[in-house]
Amino acid sequence: MKKTFIFALVGMGVFPGFLQSTHAAVDFIKEVKPILEMHCLSCHGPKNAHENGELDLSTRALAIKGGDHDNDLIPGDAEKSLIYKYTIFPADHKKLMPPKDKGGPLPKAQTEILRLWIAEGAAWPENLTLVNVMKVDFVRDVKPILEKGPPLSDESIEILKLWVDQGAVWPKEVKLGGVGGAPILDKESLIAIDLHKIIVANSKEAAEADMKKFTETIDDRTSFVMVPIPGGEFLMGSPASETSRKPDEGPSHKVKLDPFWMGQHEITWDEYELFMYPGERKKDDEGNYTSESADAVTRPTKPYVEMSFGMGKNGFPAISMTQHGANKYCEWLSAKTGHFYRLPTEAEWEYACRAGTTTAYSFGDDVSQMGDYAWYEANSDYKYQKVGKKKPNPWGLHDMHGNVTEWTLDGYDPDYYKQFENTVAQNPWNKATKPYPHVARGGSWDDKPEKLRSSIRRASSKEWKMQDPQLPKSIWYLTDAQFLGFRIVRPLKVPSPEEMKNYWNSGVERE
Amino acid sequence: MNEMTNPLTGNKFTRRDFLKTTSTVAIGGALAGAFPGRALARNDDTLKLALVGCGGRGSGAAAQALSTSGNVKLVAVADAFGDRLEKGLQNIKKAHGDKVDVAPERQFVGFDGYKDAIGLADVVVLATPPGFRPIHFEEAVRQGKHIFMEKPVAVDAPGVRRVLAAAEEAKKKNLKVGVGLQRHHQKGYIETLQRIHDGEIGDVVAMRCYWNGSTPWVRTRAEEEQKAGRKLTEMEYQMRNWYYFNWLCGDHINEQHIHNLDVINWIKKGYPVRAQGMGGREVRTGPDYGEIFDHHFVEFEYADGSRLSSQCRHIEGCWNKVSEHAVGTKGTVDLDGGGRWQIKGANPWKFDNENQRDPYQQEHDDLFAAIRDDLPYNEAENGAMSTMTAIFGRMATYSGKMLEWDDALNSKIDLMPKSFAFDAVPPVLPGENGIYPAAVPGKSIMV
Predict the structure, then answer these.
(1) Do A344 and A476 sit in the same domain of this protein?
(2) pLDDT tens for residues B134-175?
(3) How far is B57 from chain A (nearest CA, A)?
(4) How many structural domains does chain A have?
(5) Which residue among A7, A326, A379, B123 is the one 20 to 30 A from B196 at the CA level?
(6) In this structure, how many other beta carbons lie within 10 angstroms of the beta carbon of residue B285?
């Protein structure tokens, strides 16, 4: 499997946030292979093993067979294995490996990896042959690439991969300077650049006519359905005459939107927990990634409190995530599936909710029909319910009015619509500049009918994580928003890497 | 039920006494909220605050103390680890820069720093892993400070007894003591409990409670050694990965489930008299997970013969719930602490969730109001007894025996190390395979 450099960046601890995840056994590919390829293979490879004690370390079998000694590698016994033992000799010992003039002694962190790896049985895939790898010099090889920024040539990507594999050494005194104002790469950009290629190659639909309802599979037990939403124009907001209408729902104005697919259902815990708990079903996942960037996407920390609040997991909507959490889910899901996913904009959400209607609800104005279409205060039994059990709206979307309120991409501004009076807004998105407030749409199991209207807007607030007792509060979980979940969209037109990055990092979550 | 023995002093202590202690707490809070004008008359001197234990929760508690009305200033901090101290202090500064005045000479790193930090303050926040709480609480009382301490307040019976004794001392010295069982300061709980105690569900005859969730965090030895760039001593490693060692944490039944057990005690206005249970390590079996169980089921019996079924589990992918429930002769009550409280039966009712306040802030508002207005305020005793309830549960699941409360509370089994230093030997060590010995029901002696 081809390894992306982002994946490796994570493995090498370049992004310290990842250290929070559980470290299980030593990973040969990520941790041991780079050490052997850079420090051992130049002498102990097939070409020159005969000059160096006949020891060839290019495969596991050869390493175990050994050279002049028969104890070069004894799986399970690090103390007796010379490829560990020789690395921990003092710097002036004549048997030190790698020798002093070849970069020895290795840092303790690396010799410890060797020791643990051998002690744990020296796992090393049968058919994996190691090769000698060039030593990357940060100033000479890497600095220019980072300073130039994207787009990256394949050669540059190779160099970055090697650099990361070799420990991502970045001398403290070396500072990057932007060349010609070019952006300096950050992790989010690297992921977007990596995924953009894959997503473009994977997006077969060229025109609206090609858009069909489809089922996307995340793993062998988990899939979701995306419904095509035609591009078009609609009247956003509600007329002043609508019962219970709030001032921020006006003025009504025309909005024109490009076509997209939207999730038939709210995202369920079945889906969201694959993102929350990466370790749990790892075995099933092995080798199934469209991109290993899925592993590079920042993943949630573990919640201290149980986040479904006992309302049920299988088939029930995921709740209590921050907008940042929802955005990162979309990024992770894009990497998993090879299709571009994001939260809907506020305009896309209302357009899809209305599904061509201009009434307060997508089934009309008659509140007595509410129970057929929505889980809300009167019928929810004081908790959320399984997704998709009520009638869909005219475009086939379930639970838009009720069950859980849903995140959108937009920052909340009560006056946002005013600028569009008497004009046609094209794909509007009010990109947030601060953590609060963002817009959530639709009603929930805990709401009265007027809060389920197509046009009602709900602004997020600090109160939604009021009961998080930690400082800083979690950027992933809302302790007080049990009414809140989300659904996703996939636009027909694949956005640029920069746009992708903006969509996936719109939360401005750090407070 | 109407008469309980305080097992420490042997004093008979009546339901009326118990009501007196618990209701003053509630009244203190209610008064502070109801008569904001009182602030004019109150002592508004600057209160100096010290934080002992600078993790995420300790920093949060300090920030809440600094957010109470009136002048509060953080003047000293202590933590066993320098990096934790720095990070915590940074976070508090970010939130309350103007109220943080902690010069380097008032930042204390190591096991003994708490003494000096406490000495510099009027009010102290004790938020280290719970194993240290009895030691820190005793010291804070000895030095005559007002105290906010996180739950649980101990990890073993000797520790609980120390806290109970110090709590008596605190009362004599008129010190105000808050304990981080914030449900006592949460509107939904307070209103629901009021209704239960008013008889809205009749006599409470059966109870259930849950903390079924997932592993909150783990710090593996490999990860910590990578960060440190060197091998850690066993003591350092256990202190970093403290959740999984009983001398530090007391098991998750103590560290988390105490909240739910405490609510049932509150409902019953008493503590269990008998317990038996089962539990074990089903999925958290590796060397990173110390010695604690990953699931417990305990049946507690209260003095009136009613029983509590208590479940706590840290296993991902299972049915999850964190809540309390009771069945009464006239109805049932469901307390889903995250925001839903309801009574079904003869007197149906739902809590209106619109006007919730942050209970973590409220518990500090109430404590500081009591300090400034000199109102009686002592949550230490209930904190200790609810901690003992959780420890009692652990003793039951670890031993597999039917246990009596008095035996448990008087148990001589002391889990703490002989000395506190990073090169000292902790009380539990891994076996050859890196795995720590865990309790074996039916064999292990726990009382």
Answers:
(1) yes
(2) 999 999 999 999 999 999 999 999 999 999 999 999 999 999
(3) 5
(4) 2
(5) A379
(6) 12
Tell me how far apart the alpha carbons of residues A455 and A446 are, in angstroms, rounded to a whole number: 18
Q: Is A361 helix (H, G, I), strand (E, B) or coil?
A: strand
**What pLDDT sits at residue B190?**
96
Give the pLDDT confidence of A334-376 residue by residue, as tens digits. 999 999 999 999 999 999 999 999 999 999 999 999 999 999 9
Tell me the pLDDT tens digit for each residue of B361-394.
999 999 999 999 999 999 999 999 999 999 999 9
Q: In angstroms, what separates the C-alpha of A480 from chain B's closest C-alpha?
A: 7
**Same domain? A286 vs A150:** no
CA–centroid distance for A344 within its chain:
17
Q: Which of A37, A35, A42, A477 is nearest to A275 (CA)?
A: A477
Within this chain, do residues A179 and A320 fall inside the same structural domain, yes or no?
no
Beta pairing class for B403-404 and B177-179: unpaired
**Interchain pair B213, A472: CB under 8 A:** no
Residues A269 and A351 in one domain: yes
Whole-number Å distance between alpha carbons of B308 and A152: 63
The answer to whether residue A93 sits within a structural domain is no
Q: How far is CA B91 from CA A30, A185, A346, B50, B58, in A?
A: 33, 27, 34, 15, 11
Nearest chain B residue to A320 by CA distance is B338
* A471 closest CB neighbour out of B56, B225, B357: B56
Q: Do A218 and A364 belong to one domain?
A: yes
DSSP-based three-state secondary structure for B157: helix
| pLDDT band at B180; cut points 50, 70, 90 | very high
Angle at A216 between CA A215 and CA A222, to 5 degrees: 105
Would A47 be classed as within a structural domain? no
Task: Kindly report the nearest CA distance between residue B351 and chain A, in angstroms.
Answer: 11
A388 assigned to some structural domain: yes
Q: Which of B215, B336, B353 comes nearest A309 by C-beta?
A: B336
Helices A187-202 + A497-504 axis angle, to 10: 120
* CA-to-CA dists, residue B349 to A358, B334, B380, angstroms: 37, 11, 32
Q: Is A471 on the interface with B (CB under 8 A)?
A: yes
Domain assignment of residue A163, given as a range: 138-185
Residue A315 belongs to domain with CATH number: 3.90.1580.10
Average pLDDT, integer, range B314-339: 92
The answer on A321 and A179 residing in a single domain is no
pLDDT digits (tens, 9 = 90+) for B53-67: 999 999 999 999 999
| pLDDT per position as a tens digit, B81-118 | 999 999 999 999 999 989 999 999 999 999 999 999 99
Nearest CA in chain A to B289: A22
A151 and A270 housed in the same domain: no
Chain A residue with minimum CA distance to B287:
A24
Count of other CB atoms within 10 angstroms of residue B19: 12
Q: Do B212 and A306 touch (CB under 8 A)?
A: yes
Contact (Cβ atoms closer than 8 angstroms) between residue B217 and residue A301: yes
Same domain? For A290 and A384 the reply is: yes
- Does the beta-carbon distance from B223 to A23 stay under 8 Å? yes
Please report the pLDDT score of residue A301 as a whole number: 85
Q: Which residues 55-94 on chain A approach chain B with CB closer than 8 angstroms? A: none
